[in-house]
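User: Structure please.
Assistant: Input sequence and predicted structure:
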Amino acid sequence: MKGWRVALVGDPLQFSAVGRGGMFGMLVDTFGAIELERVQRFEHAWERDATLRMRRGDVAVVDDYEANDRLHGGTTAQMERAAVRQWLEHRTNGDTVLLMAPNNEAVERLNQRCQQQRINAGDIDDAGSHVCAGPYRIRCRDEIATRHNDRRLVTDRGEMIRNRATWTVDHVHPDRSMTVTGQHGTVRLPASYVTDHVELAYACTDHGAQGRTVTAGVLFIDRPTDVRNVYVAMSRGTTTNEAFIAITGEQCAADVFAQCIASDWIDQPAHIRQAEINDMMLHRPGLLDGAEVRRLLEEKFDIIGFIERAEATVARYPTELQTAVRPRSRLASSSRRSLPRRRSSLNGTDHSIAGDMRSRSSMPSGTCNNFLVASLAPRDSATPPTRRSSI
């Protein structure tokens, strides 16, 4: 009897839940998991391998990023401007691009710089109506993100407003509400929602970028961070991923990047912390290690597949047997129906032979022989048999 099976899918080395988290990673460390090892996203072969090494905290991978001119260093203001220029260049070329930073303060500054770039280019009218939303002044043609799920607000396509959905402002109304258009249609956002739950969407945090795929990724780092913030941000772009890093003193961009890869600030479950304090193995006693679990799971799936194929074959046998027996049954039935007719024909032949024998017994000897010859001659012969006169 078959039952339900739950499959947990994810990456324990990316961001976990906000707040207490780390349970998925603990399950993987404790029970093992089947892992996907081939990276499909990147165009460059070196970057496919580099992201896997960075994911595991291998600081030597910094050399690969530096050799391919993916790391840039300077003052905070210089790197902000450089990151925004790179973002604007990709947009101008028609690429999809993500501008990211590990913290909200940096994202606010990047958003304001990007908006100013669009104002300078004439894409946005600085003298037009605007609405204040947090630190931002949002104008017509700005790109925004909604940050709160609201089922009461529905687009013209019947879709609710979702957190982190992106929109373009079509019109700013006198009552400070806004008409916006996004992937799921057009909707008018009331002033209260705009004030509390709308922000510019030119840049986002690394958390907000997780799960997205674009042509180019641009990461701005202005303070120490950890490997997850770097790994997630530097694996969004299929063609290129670059980091613009604020440095001080004798530091260089590669040094700061290596420090980030070597750090992991993710929250861990209490079980893991207790095991670390007591110098215990993460693996529970009595359980197989991850490699052995994976091997046994693969064998289990092979056996289940063999059983399912065997059951399907057995299920076909009654139908195939019925198909094979059906012609034989029809032949037997036909034979039974024709048996009386054949028996009647045989009886008629018996009576004819008996009559012929009686007639022959009353004939003279020579006549009898001639009659016998005539009886044995082929019935379809064109020339009738010749009777000989007895002498």
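The radius of gyration is 44 Å.
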